[in-house]
Design a protein that fits this description.
The protein is mainly alpha-helical and 257 residues long. The protein is built from 15 helices and no strands. The longest helix is centred in the C-terminal third of the chain and has 18 residues.
């Protein structure tokens, strides 16, 4: 009844009725939170973002063990352009629930647009230090290291993850790609192939990794490596004629007909 009244023009009276019901029957807390979330959603849909945000803040504090409420709050803050608050709330989620790829991806997107690369590294270092056995913060930290050319630390971090989680194919793909770029081409390509064989759904990442590798080797003048990599790409995606053209260019650049 209180929720219904709150949805009318008598929000304060409706909330008072809801609070009174919860005080009389604490076991109704789950229902109370559910109704608050429903209220917030309706206010958000009607454009009353201030009311919705206030309720989401309340729900997040009432149920800190459920990250979905904090994630919803962070999403709303991000959508409203309140970047610093959104970053703070996604960070709150990852501090308690480190294996939350959605929160990590949303956080990284905001950091990329609004923070320096060094600040990004520091935040992921903080999150990784809290949960050194978790995969998600480790991968995002390694990615941040790569972005600032700290590839030795990135490679070491990928190795550490694989030691703890040897079957994690995404890490193996990243490790192989970086190894091929920076250390040993053949060893790196072998690791990449192993990752793709174990997890075919990583094909897009595999293809992207090969493309970046070919571009990097072309800049360094390693034509044999470029030929090798574009040869793999033409087999992977024969419908992509650009790979065939690039392979032909690499052959010519290397003095091969």
């Amino acid at each position: 009844h209180g929720a219904f009244v709150a949805l009318s023009d008598e929000f304060a009276r409706g909330r008072a009725l809801m609070d009174k019901a919860l005080e009389a029957a604490p076991e109704l807390k789950s229902l109370y939170i559910t109704e608050l979330v429903r209220l917030a959603g309706l206010y958000e849909a009607s454009g009353n973002h201030a009311f919705a945000e206030a309720i989401y803040w309340e729900v997040a504090s009432l149920s800190p063990e459920d990250p979905q409420h904090t994630i919803h709050l962070a999403d709303m803050l991000a959508a409203r352009g309140e970047t610093e608050k959104a970053i703070e709330q996604y960070t709150v989620v990852l501090k308690s629930k480190p294996e939350s790829p959605y929160s990590a991806e949303r956080l990284q997107k905001l950091l990329t647009k609004n923070a320096t690369q060094e600040a990004c590294v520091r935040l992921w270092e903080e999150l990784y230090a809290l949960h050194p056995m978790a995969i998600v913060p480790a991968l995002f930290l390694a990615e941040a290291y790569e972005a600032v050319d700290r590839w030795v630390e990135a490679l070491a971090l990928y190795q550490r993850v694989l030691e703890e989680h040897p079957g994690h194919s995404e890490t193996l793909l990243r490790y192989g790609t970086l190894t091929a770029q920076r250390k040993d081409l053949q060893q790196g390509l072998t690791r990449m192939d192993q990752a793709l064989a174990a997890a075919p759904e990583l094909r897009a990442g595999y293809e992207t990794g090969l493309t970046r590798l070919a571009e990097a080797r072309a800049i360094s003048g390693d034509h044999d490596a470029v030929v090798l990599v574009y040869g793999k790409l033409t087999k992977l995606a024969p419908e992509n004629l650009q790979y065939t053209v690039n392979l032909a260019d690499a052959l010519l650049a290397g003095g091969r007909e």
